[in-house]
Amino acid sequence: MLKRVLINNKILNGYFHEENQYLNLIHDVINCGEPVNSRNGNVKAIYGSVMHFNLSNNIMPLLTTKQIAWKTCLKELFWFINGSTDNKILKSQNVKIWNGNSSRQFLDSRQLYNNKEDDLGPIYGHQWRHFNAEYINCNTDYTNQGIDQLKYIIDNLKDTENKYSRRLLMSAWNPCQIDQMSLPPCHVIVQFNVSNNKLSCSLYQRSGDIGLGVPFNIASYSFLTHILASHCNLEASEFIYHLGNCHIYSDHIDTLQEQLKNKPKIFPTIKILNKKQNIENYNVEDIEIHNYFFNKKLNMKMRC
């Protein structure tokens, strides 16, 4: 598998390093991307990319050419898993990812005048756990409303026969409720596949901010795959990442060119300490990352 996927990547310590897929994407967009005046800034963009990341033997693909705030990433993931759309919960954990998209000014720009500040509307968590349930506000109890897509996947992954289904998909893209969301979802559909009791995940993302968003998305869905595999008595195998619009903001280019000078290090490993009865019960304390060695943190401006 690695030879097929990574044949064009550089060799590090005798093996093909998967992080070079990401570094090659940066290089391609900077050098070959089309200049576009986008909704929230000037970018260079190309269309269509795919990356494969090996998850076997507890490998966790946290990028090493810069530091990834993996605990922040996990907190957001668990927020999705719990079906929450309330940014106050993230703020209470010092997670600032959604602050720009939950401000009064931004909500008004989306004509969400009735949403209180920090109410993001029916975004990822709502669609994962209560797909298309009528959205009232972020404090409403949606128990047994809508379609619980994540539960459907978990139930099938635990089933001896159904775990091999080709229908294990979860969609965050709901055209019926897009206009109620503070931000239409970027990572829109994920599919899970089991082979030889090993779980793989394939994500399609319509829009990828290569500097800031893409490294988090790699981490988030790799975390999700590891957690689901452990929870459903499977082994994690692979994360396959399909990107539609791949773009770099003009003021990120210099920083990313600095990142290209850094040499990838061996990916860390993940250990899930406690297996919980319910997927909603996992938290950051249940996850350990071992041997994460990285280059320095790189700062870039986040866009709304």
- How much strand content do the residues show? 15-25%
Mean pLDDT: 94
Number of helices: 9
- CATH uppermost class: Alpha Beta
Number of strands: 10
Count of domain modules: 1
Rg computed from alpha carbons, rounded to a whole number of angstroms = 19 Å
What structural category do the secondary elements indicate?
Answer: alpha+beta
CATH architecture: 2-Layer Sandwich
Topology as a string of helices (H) and strands (E)? HEEHEEHHHHHEEEHEHEE
Polypeptide structure, described:
β6 (187-195) and β7 form a beta hairpin. The radius of gyration is 19 Å and the shape is globular. It has a single domain, classed as Thymidylate synthase/dCMP hydroxymethylase domain (Thymidylate Synthase, Chain A), CATH 3.30.572.10. The protein has nine helices and ten strands. The strands form three sheets. Strands 3-4-8-7-6-5 form a six-stranded mixed sheet. The model is unreliable at 1-14 (pLDDT under 50). Helix content is 28%, strand content 23%. By secondary structure, it is α+β, with helices and mostly antiparallel strands.
List the SSEs and their pairings.
Blueprint: H1 2-6, E1 11-12, E2 15-16, H2 19-32, E3 34-38, E4 41-54, H3 70-81, H4 87-91, H5 104-109, H6 124-130, H7 149-157, E5 169-171, E6 187-195, E7 198-209, H8 213-231, E8 235-249, H9 253-259, E9 269-272, E10 287-290
Parallel strand pairs: 7-8
Antiparallel strand pairs: 1-2, 3-4, 4-8, 5-6, 6-7, 9-10
Helix pairs in contact: 2-9, 3-8
